[in-house]
Write a structure and sequence with these properties.
Strand content: 5-15%
Number of helices: 9
Bound molecules: glutathione
Oligomer: single chain
Structural class: alpha+beta
Distance between the termini: 43 Å
Strand order of the largest sheet: 2-1-3-4
CATH topology of the largest domain: Glutathione S-transferase Yfyf (Class Pi), Chain A, domain 2
Radius of gyration: 17 Å
Number of domains: 2
């Protein structure tokens, strides 16, 4: 089984973290987004959307981080994707919440336009209004995450860790790049500390942490205390 990924990719890290935590053997294949390897053959043929991650399991190719996590957890019979109908529905709901509500405004509006030249909006007024929109909407979602998605639970779908936690926490970790802190969202803060304490977290996030260190001190718009 091969996983095509990039170590700083937000969509790749949930899968890499899951595989590491569950001790599932696979062949890692780095697709260098920095040199455009994802835009060229052979990867572009494997995933015509030209994005990582992609999983190759024999002759079966699967893209989309959320679908990959579900496939891997189901294949491994992992308790992190419960078989109980309602528990599984809750995990799916949380993953969809992160993927379609939170990620869009968090990453594509607030974070990426500040971090990656190909996401920069022109003119300057479009850039600043996009980032400001992203910050305001992200704060709105963080409030809901704090009070409803996590609340008094240990994890996002209850008191047991699920693939929704691997997924959501790594999307959240992209905020480290612009120095986000979660003091105003104590349940989010507590959950992120729990996830950051996972045995494989540090290794999986090493490249992202290095990238964050190289950006430290830059005047980013972020989530502040
Ligand atoms: N919906 C996809 C998104 C994948 C995605 O956005 N991948 C990014 C890296 S985090 C990528 O490959 N970007 C390439 C580019 O922007 O050219 C998933 O969840 O797998």
């Amino acid at each position: 089984m091969k996983l095509y990924f990039h170590p700083v990719s937000t969509a790749s890290r949930p899968v890499v973290l899951f595989l590491a935590e569950q001790k599932i053997a696979y062949e890692p294949v780095v697709v260098d987004l920095m040199t455009g390897a994802h835009l060229a053959e052979p990867f572009a043929k494997l995933n015509p959307s030209k994005m990582v991650p992609a999983l190759e399991d024999g002759d079966f190719v699967l893209t989309e981080s959320s679908a990959i996590l579900k496939y891997l957890a189901e294949k491994a019979g992992s308790a992190t994707y419960p078989t109980d109908l309602k528990k599984r529905a809750r995990v799916n709901e949380r993953m969809d919440w992160f993927n379609t509500n939170f990620y869009r405004e968090w990453a594509y509006h607030m974070l990426y336009p500040q971090l990656f030249p190909h996401h920069l909006r022109t003119p300057d007024t479009a850039q600043s209004s996009t980032v400001q929109w992203g910050k305001e909407k992200s704060e709105h979602w963080l409030k809901i995450m704090d009070s409803h998605i996590i609340g008094s639970q240990k994890y996002v779908a209850g008191d047991d860790i699920t693939i929704a936690d691997y997924f959501g926490s790594q999307i959240m970790a992209a905020g480290d790049l612009v120095g986000c802190v979660y003091d105003r969202f104590p349940n989010v803060d507590r959950w992120m500390k729990t996830m950051r304490a996972l045995p494989s977290w540090k290794t999986v996030n090493e490249a992202t942490d290095g990238f964050a260190a190289s950006l430290k001190g830059k005047p980013f718009v972020s989530i502040t205390a």
